Amino acid sequence: MRLLAALLFFTHLTAECSTFNFDGFANLSLTTSSSDTAKIRHLISQSHGLRDNEIGLYTSSIGMQLEWQYSARWQTVIQAALKDQEKHNLDTLTQLAFIRFMPTANWTLRAGRTELDLFMMTEYRDIGYSFTQEHLPTEFYAIVPHQNIDGIDARYKAPTTLGLLGLHAFVGRSTAHIVSDDNFYWNAE
Predict the structure, then answer these.
(1) Contact between 168 and 153 (Cβ < 8 Å)
(2) How far apart are CA 131 and CA 83, in angstroms?
(3) Of the candidates 38, 47, 53, 101, which lies 20 to 30 Å from 78 by C-alpha distance?
(4) What DSSP element (H or E) covers 65?
(5) Is the CB of residue 84 less than 8 Å from the CB of residue 58?
(6) SS3 90
């Protein structure tokens, strides 16, 4: 987290095309279950689950995202989300916090906390909304506890005659929490 904080304070401070955006999001979900054995959870890292005719707001979330585009090539993005999880601190609330550098139209480099790009169909799994045809069912992605990675990544994209060619490589560290029904708590790294 210290590396992440240092990256956020070490920014290129030119203002040739500086823009600042602040966006908020909220997902209010009322959930119920009729099962007396299976718990309904949005993610495997959630400690609470619903079963046996319970009703709850455990799959709801609220958050904000700041984007600062301070030149044509440099951008800073910070996203925080408050949701049901085992621990609440600055580290668990921070979903994204990275600096993006775009040296050319084809290359993008990022450093900091980025989303873990495991799901090709949606990048909004933590926010909880997307187009219906793009939102994968919870049973598909809820079993993967890792939502972000602290490190660096590089992305290359170029148009071809068949479509768009894209290559993405990342390296870093990710810690996630897994909670079982018997209050067993495990940090997966």
Answers:
(1) yes
(2) 21
(3) 47
(4) strand 61-69
(5) yes
(6) helix
* Number of CB atoms found within 10 A of residue 82's CB: 14
The CA distance from 4 to 36, in Å, is 43
Whole-angstrom distance, CA of residue 158 vs CA of residue 170: 18
Beta bridge partners of 40: 50
State which H helix or E strand residue 91 sits in: helix 90-93
The per-residue pLDDT for 132 is 46
40 backbone dihedrals φ, ψ, rounded to 5° = -90, 120
Cα separations in angstroms, 43 against 7, 102, 157: 29, 33, 31
Q: Would you state the structure tokens that stand for residue 143, as one six-digit string?
A: 């079993």
